[in-house]
């Protein structure tokens, strides 16, 4: 496959853990990952017209989930994860960051990867898990789910819509009245 501009190797990857992952070069990627034990245990037995509708329904269920850990609600941990997301762009230069949100039990980002996705997710999840577990006094316990959900934005005209979806997540979940009021997002971050 083709090479990414300015990089000595192709970033495009196709691999599978429990979920298949496919990341074309120079494509924006929407990533979601949750706290250990936060994913709803059983999917609703509903047929959706598109995979996008199914994802949105699953995401709404995750955002409304009252059971499972909500460690990201802790301001210290929300700040820690938000700073790591921003460092991934500015210091590590792992990606160009378009939008992000840290919800009480999951995280969503829209990025243009500059390194292979497993490298950036391992760094983001690994560094934040260690620090968050130290804050919570839970050293040695899983913090994040092993798997992340991702999909690349196939049409550049959908980037703005995806940004709005991510930033409006706290509003949809009933956590704030407007996206700018949620401090742990690209819409409300004041640093």
Cα Rg: 16 Å
* SSE-based structural type: alpha+beta
Helix-strand sequence: EEEHHEEHEHH
Second-tier CATH architecture:
2-Layer Sandwich
Average pLDDT value?
82
Question: Oligomeric state of the chains?
Answer: single chain
Distance between the termini: 39 Å
Unreliable sequence segments = 1-19
Order the strands across the largest sheet as they lie in space: 4-5-3-6
Number of helices: 5
Rough outline:
globular
Strand content: 15-25%
Please characterize this protein's 3D structure.
This protein has 191 residues and is an alpha+beta fold. It has one domain (13-181): 2-Layer Sandwich (Alpha-Beta Plaits), CATH 3.30.70. It is built from five helices and six strands. The chain has helices spanning 51-64, 75-90, 117-136, 159-167, 169-172; strands at residues 13-16, 20-23, 29-34, 95-102, 106-113, 149-152. It has a four-stranded antiparallel sheet, sandwiched between helices. It has a two-stranded antiparallel sheet with strand order 1-2. Helix 2 (75-90) runs antiparallel to helix 3 (117-136). The protein is globular and about 45 Å long. Residues 1-19 have low confidence and may be disordered.
